[in-house]
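G., before I forget:
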Amino acid sequence: MDIFLQFDLPSILLGSLAALACGLLGNFLVLRKQALMGDAISHVVLPGIVLGFLFSHETGSWPMMIGAGAAAIFAVLLIELIRRVGNVEPGAAMGVVFTTMFAAGVVVLEQSGTAGVHLDVEHALYGNLESAIWLDAYTLSDLWNLEVLATLPESIKQLFVVNLLVIAFIMLFFKELKISSFDPLLSASLGFSPKWLGLSLIVMVAIAAVAAFSAVGSILVIAMFICPAATARLLTDNLKVQLFISGIASLSAGLFGYLLAAFGPGLLGYEISVSAAGMIAVVAGLQQVLAMLFAPQYGVVMRRRRQKVHANI
Amino acid sequence: MQKLKTPDLQLLHDTNAPESINAQDHPFAVQGLTVAYHHKPVLWGVSYSAPKGCLTAIIGPNGAGKSTFLKAALGLIPKLSGETKVFGAPIKKALKNIAYVPQRSAVDWDFPATAIDVVLMGLYGQIGWFRWPSRKHRETALNCLKSVGMQDFANRQIGQLSGGQQQRVFLARALAQDAEMYLMDEPFAGVDAATEKAIVMVLRKLVADGKTVLVVHHDLETVRDYYSHILLLNGQHIADGPVETTFTSENLQKAYGGRLASTQLDGLSQASGA
């Protein structure tokens, strides 16, 4: 039991909470047809993270978060500027900005000597889920012992706070996010500026991306932004229910992704375990495939069946 | 500098005084509106004031800038010059007085929302920031759906409605906004007969309630039956006024050029007698 508590549980918490923060916000990115914005932002924040790290000298810290948020805002403004001045389509502007800023981040990372200490390129890309450990936990009762809970890894505590922030943001601005995603013109005319709402969504995305970044890495963050939301969309036509389902899909991807990675190969007789971050993304992708096949309304199977019924009539 | 400014301000004040009394008669006054898409001008210096409490059709050939006129006048798309005043106030401060019904293609109908969700959005302005719609708001929204004959579809996802039903949902949303001024972009485009009838009834009800309604309209055959006033556009302002005096073959010829046969024109302008 203590091994599970000390090594497996922290990783599961880290993966699930990272998935949840991204998965919930992903709903609005997908609805705004900005799904790739999650990818762009998760790359763009790298220079912000590195500068934040140089400033504070610790990973998973709030200065890194602030640096990331600032980098995200800077990127959004830059994308808008290039789009207007260069008269190019948004996708192209996004591509230019996010590759350039990510490259700048890598250069700063390599040059500043931080590389290889806590923050290296490999971890930035693939995450470091398995590094989370909770050595003070021995028995199940430690799970509700506040003193022991306080010794949880910093990154988990931070993700917990970020999730609270994300949930509060969505609850406070639910109606505003909904109208500005569905009909930006009406939203603007009623006084809910789609520009400001869009920007605050992007800042939240940046915060979630950074918090998730140390757990699942920046490449896999994109899977968490898109898959749970897209899965949930196939299962309901109600936005509130969709948010709820995407939350469950995110958490379960985190849980089962880790369990499969840690114990799956062992069950098959292999001595190794595979990357948990990778497995979480695979599970999220599988959920999506299952929903595409078996969703009650939009799934391929049910649609086929309905077509057959129609044909027989 | 100070000495120069004082008489200027005085002058401004004096000229404004009579205007602010008249402003009550001008729910939607556009002055010198010019719009261009990629350096190609679409509207040149259009000035127009919608007659208060009237149902007015905006007509003109394809590409005449009818939709552009509405969007630019509302400030929804960039313009080169021109300004819009709503009861004498700049449009930016008066948007809550205006309900705009865009073309159906303006939104994504796959959005996870039901008909009543969309109508509720019309009430968001009243509800205000952070607050959630209450039961009373839902009742209001349902009443708006009722007045367009859509109450039975309240909980249907909007993508599963027909084009005409979607248009009626849009109309119900505009009703929920409870504005003074209604601007509609081709509400009759591609709708079924039942929807057309329902929309006409709603438009008449709005005017009866003292609202001002401006509708981009395509079908010249129905102009006489539906509207009391028209605005004729063809990149420029051609004519505006009551249907009887403005919907003439001469004006139509000016707006449509060779696109309407003379027999067609005669038929349209003579239909008034019937």
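The longest helix of chain A spans residues 194-235. The mean pLDDT of chain A is 86.

More on Monday.
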